[in-house]
Amino acid sequence: MRNVSYRPFLIAVFFLLAVTIPAGNAVGFDTHRFNPDKRPPARTNQEVDDEIIRTYRRDIAARPRDAGLRIELAKLLAGRGLLPEALEAYQQAMALEPGAENIQLGLAEMYRQVHNDDEARKVLQTARRQHPQSVEVLRAMGSLEVDAQAYDAAINAFQDALQVSPSDESLKHGLAAAYLKKGDSEVALRELNIVLRQNENDGLARFLRAGIYADAGDNEKALNDAEKVVAAKPDYMPGRILDAKILVRLKECQKAAEILRSTRPSPALDGDGLFVLASAYECAGEKDLAAGVRREFEAASRAEHEITENRVQSLHLVEEANALAMQNKLKEAQALLQEALTKNAGNAFAYSQQAKIYFSLEQMPEARAAIEKALQLQPYQPDFLYVRGVIEEKEGNLDAALAALRAVTLVNPREADAYFEIGKICLRKNDRAQALDAFKKAAELEPDEKDYREAVGSASETRP
Description:
Shape: globular
Structural class: mainly alpha
């Protein structure tokens, strides 16, 4: 970072040299080095970020008790997509300031981003006990539980938050959405009515209410809300589609068609939109246009159905392949995995299972290639990171193996197998203290596992 402040000075020096040194390199000055075409390329944003990260790490080494530095580093790492490293920084900050609400919220969000809702929930539950009046903690809990389809828990969280902050509109949206997803439209409507009485320009509340009215067949009220949504936010396609759907019901077919026709020929309409547009044309008597859009709708529906069906079949094939692999029928398992990938090239678990089979056959290049494909699709899946780790360990790349396995424990601190492998690698590196810590963690997580207990005993023995 300090180099930046010297840059204007260096530029001035270079300019001075350029205008004072005689032509012909009379004093041995290498003039071609300052040819603009031969200057080193400017640093990329990633290189700048890397330098900032290094600066933070140096500062943390100098001030190891500064939790704020670790929080800032965590945010930077998260922005770069380095989520396991961001988790580690948040965990270290949490160890320094165990009850800090901002750290708890950041850590929970990182767990959510790596799809570990169980750990996110544990962090938030602890935060709620420590900060029972925190609106932000309750908001985060409500959002988590909605996504987890635990709607009663979400409703409780939003209701508790509203007791603290009764005018918070986003909390009211969350509460209404939770009731809607639970299927309790009547209560959701009541909550939305309260929101709109307080703020008639709340577009989200109006859109949700329009949907409830439409589902109940109250088309006039639904249309009133839907038209206001479209007027306020004309580019919001769900609002336009809902508006057109209601207009078709009310036999205002030409108007419905116009609302959706203006989006053409861009591919902005999904299957629902195409269906409504075809219905609008049909209702308006434009048979040819209706037939053309309906063909589009049928083609889109077939394609969507085929994609969905292939994904389901691909998952079943991986399950069958796993069963065959357990029976040591590796050739047959590989054939099924290849079929699974033919049906869905985005099935990361098929690549992971391929990697495990290649590993068992000691075909390390193929195993590595397969697991890297899996990780490209799902970078933070603990099982995939674990497989990468054991492949690196098998090939003797102990530092890379430790990095992968530690990433597993950051993404999911309850992966006992990863701690066990870390312990084994630390022993190979003659780091008995780290090995013992790892074995103890594995045994703590799975106390009934004999191998883990024996590893703790072995690592505890003093060398002769």
